[in-house]
Every structure is written in C-alpha cells, then in structure tokens.
C-alpha cells in the first residue's frame, strides 16, 4: 500500500450525503488499498439534552433511542452491501454519545489518517448554535478531512471503481 | 437537515390569530398544509394532539415545541408562530406561551428530528433571541434574526 492514506474513517448518519461519502470512501479504498471503516453514532447526548430541556418525555427518549439503533443497523448494513458490490472489506461500528466527540475518539484510538464526511452545513448564519455535529467533527479531529460533494460525480467514481 | 434549512418564510406566522391551545395547534398545522407539505392534514393534527395528551410541549419562559412523528409528512417540516400576548398552553411553569416551534417528522427521520429539536433547545436558551423573536413584526424579521 503506497501513499499517505492507509486507514479511512467515513461517518454515516443516514443522510444522502453520508451515503455518497461512503461510496466515495469505498472507491478510494479500492484504488488505494486503504482500509475503510464506517461509523454511525447514536446521538445520546442530544436525546439527554431534549429530556433535560423537557422537550422529550422519558418514553419519547426510549422510543427515539430505539429508532436510532434501528437506523444505525439499517444504514451500516446498506454501506456493507455497497462495499460488497465492489469487493471491498469494510468494518462497521456503531457507537453512542456526542457525535463529534465519538468521531474524534475513534480517530485517535485507531489512528485513522483520513476522515470522510458527506457535507457540512451551508453558511446561512454566524451563530454558533447552528454548527452541526459534522461541522464540529470537521473542526476538531486531528487527521485530514475530505468533504464529499457532487452526487453525480460520486456515482460515476463508484460505478467505475 | 437542521433548523436553518427548515426555516421558511411561508411557515412563520406573526402574530398567531388564535388564542387557545388546540386552535393554535390547528393554525400551525393549517399553515403547513397550505404550503403543500402534508399528505394528510387530519392525521398530522391528530398526531400532534396525541403527543400533547402525553404531556404539554409548553415548556418554560413562554416557549412551546409541539412535535410529532407522523406519516402525514414525507419530509420534516417546521412552522413557527409568535403570540406576543401569550396563550395558555398548559406550560410546565404555568406561564403563557408565546413562541411556538412545531416540528413534524416522518417516522424514518429520527436522527434529523432529534437534531432539529436540539437546535431549538440551543436557540431558545438565549433570552436575547427569545426577546427579539417576540419583538418581530413579520416573518422576514424572524428570518433575518437567524441568518444574520
């Protein structure tokens, strides 16, 4: 394996952008030989915050937590199938916590050298409240970050890989 | 999809016309329906009312976040309503509610639904933002407030 990229982490949250990012990561893994890992984080921090703010009742927290666990399984399965299509081995991990912190911790612990993200929020406000978890991950991780854009291009790259 | 992406001038009402809890909920649902975002208005309203039966979404400091997971929407939608004089929404602190953020999300949008509710919780922590929202005279001022 040559080049600077040996271990790729792609963050999957179920959005179309994150699925595109996964496809790009799989294509990149195939062409570089780098290993690829897909991470889904169940946002238990936000769930706890919503209960504390009393926006959620306890029973809603339980219900939405189950929904997120099912989402994690569904989307990581989908990414595994995409990797199988291209005969690329992929590791999938589901964690719980604050999304950007879990991404950061995973990168540090397993020494990933590239984080691939599906997108960051558009700049419509300077207010800090609107930095989403992907923005925060991009700003705080220690390794290089690649933000995937242009769905059509990603499909072309994935199909031809 | 976050709070800013859902903020839509046509889904902001300043001031709300109604003064009772159920009428305000219906007014917000009607606004969403008028924007063509609902495939079943009655179901949306019923799901919102069912959530209120479990416990009022009227919080503290005049803020209310009525929300529901409902098959009446394909994509998550948010309506904002301002009632400067406040209405009795059976809020947790017993005070009248003035700022309403209604979120309707489809059952398969749990992650995005939580993200937007979390954005609302962050935004409404600021007393200054709440005051500025209450002082707004039209939807454009609300949009400007968040996009500045």
Q: What's the short version?
A:
Chain A has 161 residues and is α/β, with parallel strands linked by helices. Chain A has helices at residues 16-32, 44-52, 58-85, 99-110, 133-140, 151-160; strands at 7-11, 35-42, 90-96, 114-117, 145-147.
- Name the helix and strand elements of chain A from N-terminus to C-terminus, one letter apiece: EHEHHEHEHEH
Please state how the strands of the largest beta sheet of chain A are arranged side by side: 3-2-1-4-5
Main beta sheet strand tally, sense and closure of chain B: 5 strands, mixed
Give the helix/strand class of chain B. alpha/beta
Hey, roughly how much beta strand do the residues of chain B contain?
Answer: 15-25%
Structure characterization notes:
- The complex is a heterodimer of chains A (161) and B (148).
- Chain A has 161 residues and is of the alpha/beta class.
- Chain A has a single domain, classed as HUPs (Rossmann fold).
- Chain A has helices at 16-32, 44-52, 58-85, 99-110, 133-140, 151-160, and strands at 7-11, 35-42, 90-96, 114-117, 145-147.
- The longest helix of chain A is centred in the middle third of the chain and has 28 residues, at 58-85.
- Chain B is an alpha/beta fold and 148 residues long.
- Chain B has one domain (3-147): Mannitol-specific EII, Chain A (3-Layer(aba) Sandwich).
- The two termini of chain B are 19 Å apart.
- The model of chain B has no long low-confidence stretch (mean pLDDT 94).
- The longest helix of chain B has 14 residues, at 21-34.
- The chains are: A alpha/beta (161), B alpha/beta (148).
- Chains A and B meet through helix 2 and helix 3 of A and helix 1 and helix 4 of B.
């Amino acid at each position: 394996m040559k080049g600077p990229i040996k271990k790729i982490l792609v963050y999957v949250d179920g959005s179309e952008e994150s699925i595109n990012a996964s496809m790009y990561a799989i294509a990149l893994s195939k062409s570089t030989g780098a290993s690829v890992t897909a991470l889904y984080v169940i946002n238990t921090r936000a769930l706890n915050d919503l209960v504390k703010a009393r926006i959620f009742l306890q029973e809603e927290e339980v219900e939405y937590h189950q929904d997120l666990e099912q989402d994690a399984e569904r989307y990581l399965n989908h990414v595994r199938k995409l990797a199988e299509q291209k005969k690329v081995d992929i590791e999938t991990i589901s964690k719980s916590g604050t999304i950007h912190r879990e991404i950061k911790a995973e990168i540090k612990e397993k020494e990933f050298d590239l984080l691939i993200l599906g997108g960051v929020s558009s700049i419509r406000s300077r207010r800090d409240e609107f930095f989403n978890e992907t923005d925060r991950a991009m700003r705080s991780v220690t390794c290089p970050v690649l933000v995937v854009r242009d769905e059509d291009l990603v499909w072309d790259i994935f199909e031809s890989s | 999809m976050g709070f800013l992406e859902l903020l839509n001038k046509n889904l902001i009402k300043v001031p709300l016309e109604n003064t009772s809890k159920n009428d305000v909920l219906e007014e917000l649902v009607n606004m969403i329906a008028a924007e063509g975002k609902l495939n079943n208005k009655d179901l949306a309203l019923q799901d919102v009312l069912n959530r209120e039966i479990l416990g009022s979404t009227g919080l503290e400091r005049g803020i209310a976040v009525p929300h529901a997971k409902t098959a009446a929407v394909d994509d998550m939608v948010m309506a904002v309503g301002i009632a400067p004089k406040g209405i009795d929404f059976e809020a947790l602190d017993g005070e009248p509610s003035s700022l309403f953020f209604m979120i309707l999300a489809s059952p398969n949008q749990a992650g995005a639904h939580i993200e937007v509710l979390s954005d609302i919780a962050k935004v409404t922590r600021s007393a200054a933002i709440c005051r500025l929202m209450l002082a707004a005279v039209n939807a454009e001022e609300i949009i400007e407030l968040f996009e500045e």
